[in-house]
Amino acid sequence: MKKAYLVPAAVLIVIAGTFSWQFFSKNKFASPTSIQPFFSPTPKPLLKYTIENLGKTKIESSQIKIGDEIKDDPAFMSRYFFFNVDGKKISGLINLPKTPGSHPVIVMLRGYVDREIYTSGIGTQRAGEVFAQNGFITLAPDFLGYGKSDQEAGNSIESRFQTYTTALTLLNSIPNLDYALSTMHLPLQSDASRVGIWGHSNGGQIALTVLETTGKPYPIVLWAPVSKPFPYSILYYTDTYDDHGKALRKVIADFEKDYDIEKYSLTNYFGKITAPIQLHQGTSDTEVPQLWSEALVENLKKLDKNVDYFVYPGADHNLLGGWQQAVDRSVAFYKENLKVEP
């Protein structure tokens, strides 16, 4: 009797095993040995700062507020101004002509200044006053971490890229400037259809990047601009660091592990520039070699870009030794390209 029941039981075991094998072979996800490991991609938050991606990004505008007085001159006044970038406050200096009417606007982008000596307007104020005396409103942002601005990002690479978004936000916010001026009860307005850019040193690098990301024909004046590819454009200056750039080189090496650095180098996107350019360079500049500006002009002209180049024998990085001639040429350039009556 016991043997009679053993055969069917064995058959059932074989059949069950066969069905189980067929089921798991067709449904591999049910087998522990067939489950593939899941790898989470490395977050790349700095991708949004590539020149191409910045050009595709909708940069929000900000309200502009005009603050306390810095200087009062018979021909112009200087005040603090404030706007917001990605929820952070940026301060800056605005120069306002005292002549009534509608005035073009020049956004002024400074070069590097040590935080310990920084005050709002340093690096732009002297030229900005001349522009204001000639009928231009000037806006010079301090950037994050400077002046009365909020702190910059903890990542030194992102802090550099945030100068681009600061400049782009300010340019997009100029249509809001008239409201701020109306609160001062002054007989002057800004003309958001007539906007130029001025950039000195690293500010020139920011200005060129803005032209590449927007493709807009903002008339631009460059004084001794930094125009080499990233990251050489910052590594060049590390000889003055206490550690000779060791920490910065590590930051850049870590950055290059996750990002294609060519997508952040302005030298790869000169073709996107549509603006007229006026460039000034001193022969005794120890911060931006004259060869850099000569190479920039050559590369722009190869692409049939509209660029005028002026060299000042003996002038330094701030164009001392040719400053008055440089600022006079800058005023004339803006008047011609922003259609200001003589």
Any low-confidence stretches, pLDDT <50, length ≥5? 1-33
SSE run: HHEEEEHEHHEHEHHEHEH
Question: Could you give me the name of the CATH homologous superfamily of the largest domain?
Answer: Alpha/Beta hydrolase fold, catalytic domain
Distinct helical segment count: 10
Please, what is the average pLDDT?
Answer: 89
What fraction of the residues are assigned to beta strands by DSSP? Answer: 15-25%
**Strand arrangement, major sheet:** 1-2-3-5-4-6-7-8-9
CATH topology of the largest domain: Rossmann fold
Structural class: alpha/beta
Going by CATH, the architecture of the largest domain would be: 3-Layer(aba) Sandwich
Count of distinct strands: 9
Radius of gyration: 29 Å
Helix content: 25-40%
The oligomeric state of the chains shown is: single chain
Structurally, the number of domains stands at 2
Span of the ends, CA to CA: 121 Å
| Major sheet details | 9 strands, mixed
Describe the structure.
The chain has helices at residues 2-26, 51-56, 125-133, 156-173, 177-182, 202-214, 232-235, 246-258, 290-302, 323-337, and strands at 65-72, 76-85, 88-97, 101-109, 137-141, 188-200, 220-223, 277-282, 307-312. It has 342 residues and is of the alpha/beta class. It has 2 domains: 2-34; 45-337, Rossmann fold (3-Layer(aba) Sandwich), CATH 3.40.50. The longest helix has 25 residues, at 2-26.
